[in-house]
Write a structure and sequence with these properties.
This protein is an alpha+beta fold. Helices cover 44% and strands 20% of the residues. It has 17 helices and 16 strands. The structure holds iron/sulfur cluster (SF4) (2 copies). The site of one iron/sulfur cluster has 15 residues, from helix 13 and helix 14.
């Protein structure tokens, strides 16, 4: 072989094997499973969906109970009316949600993913429809492997038709949190939907159909950021779904009557049920994997097998790394729940939740913004007075109208000139021009600190104070 050919051969051998950047998806056909944890998943699906689909239809004070009215910049949550100035409560809600996620993840791993995440919940619903239309796992595998036929077309059309109808209903409900849902329903009925409402119903519906019908586990595996950073919240005492290697291995098939110990076998009969029921298609016996969403379907599946074999349940179970290594029982694991990381998350969560609750309870349903009239900072008026003009934006955040008195203090003779009582309708902001005067001989030139006091005359305890300045030239 010539030198050049030898070199080419060496380069060819040194070349790394070409690998695809994207793993081609193998369709997963999760097998239906019943059991304790499946019951919890169904309960969570029902609870979350009853709340999601039902909430926008509830009424409160002759309006929609929960409505995020972006156009009017008001959020209605039952008796609470939140204004843009109340943005802090939205921020606090996000902080509380994040802290709850940290706490639950530190204690029991991916509880959120397995039971309450919309991706899991809608995948469960779509899978349930798929099973009802196409049958259980073996039927679905067989159907997909069949050549085209009218029967296959009928089943596929039925499944996708129901999926699309549910997705559109989901999109409609979602938009119904931002636009009064009863008006939206009559617009749909009369084909009078506006362009934005149509866009968001179709967009949210399409996202639901695509994510729950087609993408499924790929959303968790490739798109969800939480799957990537959740390991930072795990430690050796976090409850995760684990296969008991010591008990299960060496795995192997056997007849029910076989004495496993005598045959040198562990409790795993290698039936593959735990893999078949897994919605992400992984084998939990290979250890904790980031693809595991913690749905516990493999626990239910394996427990059914253990029952049939007359073995103790729990070959796959919730456990911790430390418990498996040290042979702790449930009580031993529970003792480790009170560890520094969990206590810190719990304390911060409690403090923020209490703070938010107290602040909401003490919240005065009145807000005032003072805007100085820049056009005329200070002027002399008849009767030897100096006058400053302001505009007060008075926001009545309650759902009843109120009459408010405006007063000012800070300079001995300071007083409101003219009308000082105004009515503001329910859940409305009103801009009110206010003139303040002092005696001319009172005012040294310069800027003086003053304070407005706005007080409801028809309700005790509704008052607020706002600072400003009075300018004398
Ligand atoms: S379901 Fe249980 S027995 Fe069957 S393969 Fe999985 S771990 Fe082994
Ligand atoms: S391994 Fe078990 S808990 Fe994890 S996703 Fe699969 S079935 Fe669910």
């Amino acid at each position: 072989m010539s030198e050049t050919l030898k070199n080419v051969e060496l380069i060819r051998r040194a070349d790394p094997v070409e690998e695809a950047l994207y793993e081609v998806r193998e369709k997963i056909y999760p097998r239906a499973v019943g059991g304790w944890f499946a019951g919890w998943r169904v309960a969570m699906v029902l609870a979350t969906q009853i709340v999601f689909y039902g909430m926008p239809w509830l009424r409160w004070n002759e309006r929609q109970a929960v409505l995020f009215d972006l156009a009017a910049r008001k959020f209605y949550v039952f008796g609470l009316v939140l204004w843009p100035q109340d943005f802090i409560y939205l921020a606090l809600l996000l902080v509380i949600s994040a802290l709850s996620l940290f706490l639950f993840t530190a204690v029991a791993g991916r509880l959120w993913c397995g039971y309450a995440c919309p991706q899991t919940v809608y995948t469960e619903i779509f899978l349930w429809i798929e099973r009802k239309v196409e049958g259980n796992r073996p039927h679905r595998i067989k159907l997909d492997g069949q050549p085209f036929s009218l029967d296959k077309l009928r089943l596929k059309l039925a499944k996708h038709g129901i999926w699309i109808a549910l997705s559109l209903w989901t999109g409609f409900t979602f938009v119904g949190y931002f636009t009064p849902i009863r008006e939206l329903a009559s617009e749909v009925a009369t084909l009078g939907l506006g362009p934005w409402e149509s866009f968001w119903i179709l967009f949210y519906g399409f996202a639901t159909y695509g994510n729950a019908g087609w993408m499924r586990e790929q959303v968790c595996k490739y798109m969800c950021p939480y799957a990537r950073f959740q390991s930072a919240m795990f430690d050796s005492d976090t409850l995760v779904i684990t296969y008991d290697n010591a008990r299960g291995e060496p795995r192997g098939g056997r007849a029910r009557a076989t004495d496993a110990k005598a045959a040198g076998l562990g409790d795993c009969i290698d039936c593959g049920i735990c893999v078949q029921v897994c919605p992400t298609g992984i084998d939990i016996r290979k250890g904790l994997q980031y693809e595991c969403i913690g749905c516990a379907a493999c626990i239910d599946g394996c427990n059914q097998v253990m029952k049939k074999m007359d073995y103790a349940p729990g070959l796959i179970r919730y456990s911790t790394e430390n418990a498996l290594r040290r042979g702790w029982n449930f009580a031993g694991m529970m003792k480790r729940v009170r560890r520094p990381r969990v206590l810190v998350y719990a304390a911060v969560l409690l403090a923020v939740t209490l703070g938010a609750g107290v602040s909401l309870a003490l919240r005065v349903p009145l807000k005032v913004d003072v805007i100085r009239d820049r056009g005329s900072l200070s002027r002399e008026v008849g009767g030897g007075s100096i006058e400053n003009v302001y505009r007060l934006q008075i926001m009545n955040t309650e759902e009843t109208p109120h009459r408010y008195r405006i007063r000012a203090s800070g300079i001995p003779t300071l007083a409101v000139a003219g009308e000082d009582v105004f009515e503001v309708p329910a859940a409305t902001a009103r801009m009110i021009p206010v003139r303040l005067r002092i005696d001319a001989d009172e005012g040294r030139s310069g800027s003086h600190r003053i304070e407005f006091a706005v007080e409801a005359l028809d309700a005790a305890g509704i008052q607020t104070h706002e600072r400003s300045t009075f300018v004398v030239r």
